[in-house]
Amino acid sequence: MNVLVCLRTTARTSPAPLDAADAHTLARAAALRAGGHTITAVYGSSLAEADAIAAALAPHVDRSVRIAGDELATADFHTVGLVLATAIRRIGADLVLAPAQGEDEPLSAAPAAIARLLGARYLPLVEEVTALDDGGVEVWLRTAGVKRRLRVALPAVLATAAGAPAQLPQPGAAPAGSAVAAETMMITDPDATVVRRRLELLGRPEPASRGSQTVNSAAEMVAALTRR
């Protein structure tokens, strides 16, 4: 099973390359990796941050893909969802894990946006994930104070629940030169507007601009401006 982890999609809570929300999601992915599943990390960052993030991820993932550009740091959840969903389609994944954050945070709906764009099932507040022999996953989540166990068919997008600081497993000694180098993926045109960028990512043609009309007198202009 190919597991893709979307990182750095929440409001940054620390100057560290990966914050607590990222650590929660990586911890869920680590349990799957221990079972032999491939983990790919996808994140947006500036070039200045790239080396530090790649080094922090290297012990915990099999592949690391950086989305080049600074736009995601200030984008809304619609744009974040579009960019990440486009990257996921290119890479390919059976299961997507993403950090969750509070409902009042601006990017809280990003995982749901990713699921909608991918046409995948979406579950929030996931505390545990286990791979099943039939190709699906079993998840534990808590709703209305009740912990529930569900079987989920793939593809699916799971938003991990926030909680106590997660402890990532300590990796064993890695052979020299085995660190995971981050690949760079270009998704957007930095000169495009946000509206045009969203349409391009969705694979839809840009809508035609408002039509024009030639007028030859002031009366015709007034009539054109007031026509409904």
Describe the 3D structure.
This protein is α/β, with parallel strands linked by helices. It has one domain: HUPs (Rossmann fold), CATH 3.40.50. The chain has 6 helices and 9 strands. The chain has a 9-stranded mixed β-sheet with strand order 7-6-5-8-4-1-2-3-9, with helices on both faces. Helix 3 runs parallel beside helix 5. The longest helix has 15 residues, at 20-34.
Ends distance:
55 Å
Highest-level CATH class: Alpha Beta
Q: How many domains comprise the coordinates?
A: 1
Main sheet: strand order: 7-6-5-8-4-1-2-3-9
Shape: elongated
Number of helices: 6
Largest β sheet strand count, sense and barrel closure: 9 strands, mixed
Total count of strands? 9
The helix content is: 25-40%
Overall pLDDT metric? 80
Question: Secondary-structure element order, as H and E?
Answer: EHEHEHEHEEEEEHH
CATH topology (level 3) name: Rossmann fold
Alpha-beta content class: alpha/beta
- List low-pLDDT spans: 171-178, 189-195
Query: For the CA atoms, what is the radius of gyration?
Result: 21 Å
Named at the architecture level, the CATH assignment is: 3-Layer(aba) Sandwich
Strand content: 25-35%
| Superfamily (CATH H level) name | HUPs
Quick recap:
With 228 residues, this protein is α/β, with parallel strands linked by helices.
Q: Could you list some keywords that capture this structure?
A:
alpha/beta; Rossmann fold; 228 residues; 29% helix
Strand and helix layout:
Blueprint: E1 2-7, H1 20-34, E2 38-45, H2 47-57, E3 63-68, H3 77-91, E4 95-99, H4 110-118, E5 121-131, E6 137-143, E7 146-152, E8 156-160, E9 182-185, H5 194-201, H6 218-226
Parallel strand pairs: 1-2, 1-4, 2-3, 3-9, 4-8, 5-8
Antiparallel strand pairs: 5-6, 6-7
